[in-house]
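Quick illustration, no need to memorize.
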Amino acid sequence: MNADRRFHPAEVFRRVIEILESLGVRYAVGGSIASSVRGIERSTQDMDVLVELPEDTVGPLVAAFSKEFYIAEPAVRRAVAGHLAFNVVHLQQGLKADLFVAGGNPLDEAQLSHATREVIDPETGATAFVTSSEVIVLVKLDWYRRGGGVGDRQWEDVKNVLKTDPGVRLEYLREKAGPVGLVELLGRALKESGLA
């Protein structure tokens, strides 16, 4: 591979997905990519992926990623044990993907079970399993709350998804917001989006 070759971020993200799928890892793309697919597109230089990662998959995962990415096996093992995050960094481009190990948040299973295959790069037609509109709204509201309610980007992503996706299931949102303590924030987001 030519060391001077310039990668578009989507090309690096596509490689992350290809590696995960080649290993049979259950995953869901979230973060900025999911809110761009489900709402209004915005540029991003990183990727957030929720992964279901049993301990016996760590070795093969590290081996597969280490050909093109920096990956630290001890960090992966800590993340798997504690349901935390680790990252992989493309060796040539420095672009990063954050992989969050499922099991540490009540919304994790919803992200995985409601993800659908969507185009993540219109130029190449590359696809991946992407978190549903409803779940990305709840996840972004959760991140907004954890950030002390000052993350304008998270809040705008929530409203953009709510305004853009005409098929968003409001009853599902209201039902799932209760157990994770997001009823008040969801109500505010629905009101600001003209849906309440």
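Residues 8 and 26 are 25 Å apart (CA to CA).
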